[in-house]
Amino acid sequence: MKKFLHSFFLPSFVFFFLFTSVLSAKEKNKISVDDKSGKPILLGLCDRTAFADSNFSWWFDSEMDMYSVDSASLKDISVKMKIVKITLVMGTWCSDSKREVPRFYKILDLLGYDQKNLTLICVDRNKKDPAGEAEKLDIKLVPTFIFYRDSNEIGRIIETPKESLEKDLTEILLK
User: Fold this and answer.
1) Measured between alpha carbons, how far apart are the two ends of the chain, in Å?
2) Distance in angstroms (rounded) separating the CA atoms of residues 89 and 142
3) How far apart, in Å, are the Cα atoms of 36 and each of 40, 125, 127, 164?
4) Residue 56: pLDDT band with limits 50, 70, 90
5) What is the dihedral of CA 132, 137, 138, 142, to 10 degrees?
6) Which residues contact residue 74 at a Cβ distance below 8 angstroms, ignoring those fewer than 6 apart?
7) Which helix (H) or strand (E) holds 149?
8) What's the predicted TM-score (pTM) here?
9) What's the CA gap between 104 and 69, in Å, rounded?
10) What SS3 string covers 84-106?
11) Which of 143, 138, 132 is nearest to 94 (CA)?
12) Which one, 83, 93, 135, 150, has the greatest CB density within 10 A?
């Protein structure tokens, strides 16, 4: 009997663990449908690989390729970037997000930023995501870039930069 239970429950447990792991992995980069346009949007926790999907790559790649980074404005912050965590809230339906987010990723690439320290949350037109993270962050406009040092928020860039992404980022990090 003991042998039977062991041979039955162990494989069942392994199957359950693998199945739930696969389900959890699928939760990232979730594509949904925009209520207004009927077009695909990203919703919830995402990472940069989501922009490789043809629904998003046409604008992401194009904007990233066309943008010229003002590297002179970034010269004093590369060391400070290593200790900063970023939360980025965006909407793939939003024209400001389609413009600013690829540009921001190009800046991060130039700075050699470890994107494991970046949390990307995609929201619908009501600024909602399935986990309710955007609401906790008091998101009113997208994109919103939130910067943290030692778990404390040190600044935000909301919707459009005041001066430029590079200059606004530098101002936040040099505080």
Assistant:
1) 68
2) 6
3) 11, 9, 14, 30
4) very high
5) -90
6) 107, 110, 111, 166, 169, 170
7) strand 144-149
8) 0.85
9) 9
10) EEEEEEECCCCHHHHHHHHHHHH
11) 143
12) 93
- Tell the residue number behind the tokens 């949390």, with chain if given: 119
Structural domains present in the chain: 29-173 (3.40.30.10)
Which amino acid, 164? S
Strand, helix or coil for residue 148: strand
The rounded distance, in Å, linking the Cα atoms of 39 and 94 is 12
Which helix (H) or strand (E) is 47 found in, with range? none
Least confident of 77-81, 91-95, 114-118: 77-81
Distance CA 55, CA 47 (A): 15
Q: How many CB atoms lie within 10 A of CB 142?
A: 25
Q: How big is the CA angle at 119 (ends 80 and 58), to the nearest 5 degrees? A: 105
Residues composing the chain: 175
Residue-wise DSSP of 56-70: HHHHHHHHHHH----
